[in-house]
Amino acid sequence: MRPSHRNLDEMRPISIETGVTRHAEGSCIIRIGDTHVLCTATIEEKVPPFLKNTGLGWVTAEYGMLPRATNTRMRREAKVGQSGRTQEIQRLIGRALRAGVDRVALGERQITVDCDVLQADGGTRCAAITGGWVALRLAVNKLIKAGEVTTDPITDHIAAVSCGIYAGQPVLDMDYLEDSEAGVDGNFVMTGSLRLVEVQMSAEGATFSREEMSELMTLAEKGVKELVEAQEAAVG
Fold it and tell me: DSSP code of 150?
């Protein structure tokens, strides 16, 4: 029995609210169970120095957790410096979102997606990627509407979900209680057509077989399909 009483292949409730900030070109709050993440996308008519005069655009991301996103207060990273975990997650988000973008069509501009965790209950990086895509989609829609780009730079949806082995059973979309006790922990980033962008899997005290990995992959595909449906509903 899962702590949340969900079925093994059942996602937590998903909701995506768009247009939540006034100034960002794209914004949303994504809620997956009790994990809530604010995602905003900012368009800048410049690129990093290594891309100047290449005609290529860039998509990057930043990630952070508010002090009381968790059950005990964390110090703001602005005071203590970014942790290795934070740096790793924001690089993952950037890589994931770039996988769904035609950087030639985007043109020589940068879109920065900021993902701020308001409340954490497991799967924050996956929620950030899924919500980050929505913010990115909305920002690109503004470029298209303004005639700044002639071809849609978004090539596919990008979404992510966690799966793992909890109490000996493969489960979909782990919350914190499951994640903290999982024997195997995995994060799956996929396109809307279910092509893999990145897979992060590790044994947390128990090894896993190829067959178990395949079961987790099947669960992840089911979860990503549901997340993509939520994205489509959010962006119209």
Answer: S
Say if strands 184-191 and 158-166 run parallel, antiparallel, or are unpaired: antiparallel
- The CB-side HSE value for 77 (13 A sphere, CA atoms) comes to 14
Q: In this structure, what are the phi and psi dihedrals at residue 86, rounded to the nearest 5 degrees?
A: -60, -45
Name the E strands within 8-137: 14-18, 26-32, 35-44, 58-65, 110-119
Residue identified by tokens 């966690």 is 162
Which residues are annotated binding-site positions? Answer: 85, 123-125
Q: Which CATH superfamily is domain 14-235 in?
A: GHMP Kinase, N-terminal domain (3.30.230.70)
Positions at the binding site for phosphate: 85, 123-125
> What average pLDDT does range 31-37 have in this prediction?
98
Residue 1 vs residues 4, 5, 7, 35, 172: alpha-carbon distances, Å: 8, 6, 8, 21, 13
pLDDT digits (tens, 9 = 90+) for 170-192: 999 999 999 999 999 999 999 99
Asked if the model's pLDDT at residue 21 lies above 80, the reply is: yes
Calculate mean pLDDT across residues 154-162.
98
Domain boundaries, the chain: 14-235
